[in-house]
Amino acid sequence: MGTCLLIAEKPSAARKFAAALGGMQGSFDGQPYRIVALRGHLMELARPEEQVAPEHAGRMASWDPAAMPWDRSLIAWRRVPREGAADALQEAERALSALGPGDEAVIATDSDPSGEGELLAWEVLEEAGYAGAVSRMRFADEEPATVRAALAARTPIPSPSADGELAKAAARDKWDYLSMQITRLATAAARSKGHDALVRAGRLKSVMVSEVGRQLAAHATYERVPYYEVRYRDELGNAFARADAEEAGLRAPSPDEAGLGAHVPCKVVVDGTRQTRKAPPALPDLGRLASKLAKEGHEPAEVMATYQALYEDGIVSYPRTEDKTVTQAQFEELLPLTEAIAAAVGVDPSLLTHRAPRKSHVGEGGAHGANRPGPNVPGDLRSLARYGSSAEAIYALVARSWLATLAPDATWSRTDAHLEGAQGYVARATVPADPGWRAVLGGEGDEGDGEGAEARFGELAEPYVHEGAPERPKAPTMEWLERRLERYEVGTGATRASTLAEAADGSKRALMAQDKGRLTLTEAGSLSLLLLDGCMIADPAATERLASDMAAVGRFEIGEEDLLRGFDELLAHDMGRIEANARKLPEARGAGACPRCGAPVRRRGRAWSCATNRHRQGEDGTWELVEGCGFRLSPFAGRELSEEQASRLLSGQRVALKGLKARSGKRYDCELELDAGSEHGCRPVFDGRGSRKRGTGRR
Question: Domain 227-279+409-468, CATH 2.70.20 — does that match?
């Protein structure tokens, strides 16, 4: 029997495999094996200018709109090792080269909905030149029994072209790569008006910015415009109204125009009472978790990192799952832990009387099962603090959500009534009967008038004029955005959480900012909102269609080329929109006045350039000045100058730069001062001895 080389996605997974099988190499149940660990993606697509022949490199490197769209037929789609991946890549290549005839490489990476696990394994196999047998090992978690069963049940993959998950992931990777053109177009448009911003675009980021921007505008521009309509109220305070009042034209702009005089008291007729029930809510995905915990002050990136750490120690389940239910086997694994989980989060186990699986929460299929507690139950939530500041909150929310599925349905008593002689006027009184799972979740999903209310109606209802107004749109929050994107099926919960964490990471590149879950746009986000208005890249419906097409690639229903042609159409549309939107963009004030001609100096690419300058790209890919005074402040020693630094130089002040890297590799500090006559617009100034303040050697 040949040796199986298990390719784990990361060292922590490799350790779990080793614990399940008896070591990093050996034999389990007669099957020889070895384990090698990747570090996530070890390869990535090379930079655009490295994907084409030298004569096209200048065009591919350019951020000038004239250099786009790219000619896809010229792109080699070459992958190169990621920075810092050399050691892990060499280790994987050595392990693969040691395999002989009869051995097989086993892809044992995570089964992500996007196919990412497939791609990161295949790119290493390709880089190593491996041509032997390949199989796939799938596991819902990394528990020993699951790992052993997955190894025994691995399935062969005849070739890369037969792997649908790889096809889907590779097509998505290329689509996303091509989309950097939209970032370049939007950024160039912003910088042409002097705005110092990187306007990042992407199929999720752009939709998020668009949704948040529209909601911010709706919230900020809301004006309360009251309306008046006739309603009825009985002697117990129950209000009777028509659901179609607006459509029927019964709302007036003033009380006098509501027509109260045409209405008379009416008899109340009770239609009956019935019980309504509601099952527990779905188990939360990572996006829901991150958005809920943001309200408690936990940053999305910290929540994701902490959840991953908890998962690796078996305290919670796999984070990046797309599943909404658990399997029968997963349900049976957790059921014996009910009392321990309840004790950990302070839930009374007597509330958990529904121990049978619900069809709404337990079913077959799926890869990892919905987010839930893991097999290792903490004895004290305070012991989780070592995993991260949000660990206790994560476990409490995941555990209570799971325990709620073991509680009875929440029930209400609902009584309906109508008015005799006033067609369409109805009222409803709802009284909680049994809180059920609401008692476990702490009131989530409250409905009705509150405990102790009585569903009673009077005998006669009097007409009155009711004043109302359209509800003010809510300020956008992470939880609001999560529900919006989920409605459009835009990305998985984990993808939405990670994208939002990146878009609101607090850096200069951030598109959004969040404060306890409340979202606002940064300057870059506001520019993105304006420049991508009407663009397909920012349309959630278009993103939803794209996700469907990517899934179709994975099922071999359409080809990769079909998907990328769709991108070509999107880019052609969005280029026109960005160009039109750029004309509406206000001019930025710039960093200061040009020392040569007095015109504004504005950001252009990585440099600060006089607004009078115009360049043209030659056939050899180089750029030449064709108009303007030619002044520019170039990056110094590879370091871009911020707006503040450029402004200080233009006003005659010096700027200190620290930690610059010399050709020798040593670090040094220096100051810059304006030198309008030089090619780079500035020159370095060292201390009085003519040497660097730190380090040695000449630059």
Answer: yes
pLDDT of residue 453: 45
The string of DSSP codes covering 400-453 is HHHHHTTSPPEEEEEEEEEEETSTT-EEEEEEEEE-TTHHHHTSTT--SS-TT-
Instruction: In whole angstroms, give the CA distance from residue 121 to residue 106.
Output: 9
pLDDT at 445: 45
Q: Does domain 4-176 have CATH number 3.40.50.140?
A: yes
Cβ distance 409 to 277 under 8 Å? Answer: yes
User: Residues of 523-550 as b/e, b for ≥16 C-beta within 10 angstroms?
Assistant: bbbbbbbbbbbebbbbbbebbbebbebb
pTM for the model stands at 0.79
- Give the model confidence (pLDDT) of 57-92 as tens digits: 999 999 999 999 999 999 999 999 999 999 999 999
Q: Is 509 or 377 the better-scoring residue by pLDDT?
A: 377
| 70, 98 Cβ separation under 8 angstroms | no
Length of the chain: 699
Fold (topology level) of 286-404:
Topoisomerase I; domain 4 (1.10.290)
Q: Who has greater pLDDT, 688 or 317?
A: 317
Residue at token pair 């059920």: 436
pLDDT score recorded for residue 446: 42
Q: Specify the 3-state DSSP secondary structure of 479.
A: helix
Residue 54 carries which side chain, given as an amino acid letter?
P
Q: Which amino acid is at 440?
A: V
